[in-house]
Every structure is written in structure tokens, then in C-alpha cells.
Design a protein that fits this description.
Structural class: alpha+beta
Strand content: 15-25%
Number of strands: 6
Radius of gyration: 21 Å
Strand order of the largest sheet: 3-4-2-1-6-5
Number of helices: 3
Number of domains: 2
Order of helices and strands: HHEEEEHEE
């Protein structure tokens, strides 16, 4: 079976494009929420009417999400993508293929952005951080190693198949 080679620079471009699209959607939603929060009809009709307050909380959460996306875009813009060889240890910017319980997964290790996933070259690739249980277990391991993640009474093993 031949090993697929994935271009991480193209992956970073795909992540940036997805984030830019997400940013546009969140900014549009925030604008609509802000308008709803400040509209004349949002003034409370009585002490139990919290529509305006709820809209302002939502606008605040959307502003925080915008800030997070913008921060991740800056990180991706300046990310030094390293190519990993057969014997290199997993570190930041590693793209990893693992198998756990008969299922293959692909992870991209970054300092921020954990949970973000992108469809890239037919694969679902999820960003994980070194602070996550899986990211921490994979860090400093090599191809062929097994990373073990304990979650309460459950133990999950991840066999490292490829590192790019």
C-alpha cells in the first residue's frame, strides 16, 4: 500500500478559506443581533421582558467568536509548516494519521483552534492542540508508536500510521 503525501501548505490554505467564510457569516449574524438588541422594539415592555438583554449577550458571544477566528487566521498566516520524516517526533504543525478501534482519523496539531475540522483531499482533518488529551498523548511520539488516552475508566489507543 503506497503512502499518500499530503501538502500541508494547501491544508493551511483550506483552513484559512474556511475560517474566512465562517468569519463573514459570524460578522453578518453579529450585525443582525446588534441591530435587534438596539432596535426600538427591543426595549423591555415589563420587568420580565429580557429580549434586549438576551440579544446583547448573544452579540457579545459573537464578538468573542469573531476575535477567536481572527486570532486563528493570524496564527495560520504566520505558521511555519514543518515537514516530518519517518523518525521525527510529533510536534506543532504535524499532520497525523492514526487508527483507533479500527477507525482512521487525521489530526493537525496547532497551538490554537482545537475542534476545527476541514474536509481536505477527501479526508476529514481535525485541529487538535497539545493541551487536549489526544494532542498531549501524541506529542513527541513517532510513526509506529501507540498513544494512550485515559478518560476516566476508558482507555483508548491511537496507533500512529503516518506523520507529515
Amino acid at each position: 500500500m503506497s503512502t499518500v503525501v499530503l501538502d500541508k501548505k494547501k491544508l493551511v490554505t483550506a483552513l484559512r478559506e474556511q475560517l474566512l467564510a465562517d468569519l463573514a457569516i459570524v460578522k453578518q449574524a453579529q450585525l443582525a443581533t446588534y441591530e435587534a438588541a438596539t432596535h426600538e422594539e427591543s426595549k423591555p415592555e415589563n420587568k420580565y421582558d429580557t429580549r434586549g438583554l438576551e440579544a446583547s449577550y448573544l452579540a457579545g458571544a459573537q464578538a468573542k467568536r469573531i476575535s477567536e477566528i481572527e486570532e486563528l487566521l493570524v496564527i495560520l498566516t504566520h505558521l511555519q509548516v514543518k515537514d516530518f520524516g519517518e523518525n521525527d517526533k510529533i510536534n506543532s504543525s504535524a499532520l497525523i494519521e492514526v487508527e483507533s478501534q479500527g477507525r482512521r482519523s487525521h489530526f493537525f496539531i496547532m497551538v490554537k483552534g482545537g475542534g476545527l475540522a476541514v474536509k481536505f483531499e477527501g479526508l476529514n482533518i481535525q485541529i487538535i492542540t497539545p493541551n487536549s488529551p489526544v494532542g498531549g498523548a501524541l506529542l513527541s511520539r513517532k510513526k509506529g508508536d501507540v498513544a494512550i488516552v485515559e478518560n476516566g475508566s476508558q482507555i483508548r489507543e491511537y496507533e500512529i500510521l503516518n506523520i507529515w
